[in-house]
Amino acid sequence: MTGMPEIAVPIERRTTQLMRHLGAGWLERPSREREEKPQALIKALDLKPTDVVADIGAGTGYFSFRISSLVPQGKVLAVDVQPEMLAIIEALKQEKKVGNVETVLGSITNPNLKDELIDLALMVDAYHEFDHPREMMQAIVQALKPDGRVVLVEYRGENPLIPIKPLHKMTQRQVRSEMAAVGLTWLETKETLPQQHILFFGKQA
Fold it and tell me: Residue 50 and residue 47: Cα distance in Å, rounded?
């Protein structure tokens, strides 16, 4: 999709309350495969076997584990601000016998990743929950390799028929303007999911 100008604006959007670890069952609900088509999202990421992927706001590791088999020479860094969520991931690592998923305890302003470490930062229905979106995104940009990508997945705010509360949706224009404000360039938007945008960004040259 093209045709919308890049306008960087201050991030003054009202953020939503973080999903607590007690909501872990919602993240793993069986209907999620049908509702969100996670495999279609993962295919759209076009991952390489050596990629280092940061799953920011990993929750229970729903996407971390699904991605891990596609990066056998790389790894997935499952980042979350809740130790309880990371404990769930650690338990699942043992159960699934997965060796290339690592948990990282982030803060509300920093994912705690090394500079130029990651090939891709993935945020699935997570960015709109950030308490300090500008500071968090600036830290994520710093953790990107020079040719790294940022991918944000958010419910389409343009569509009032999607049965999600407005505070949990974002328009493509909102996302693109906020990413421009932290020095990211929009690359493309894929509309292959039933209810969510997939927006791709890279570092500005």
Answer: 8
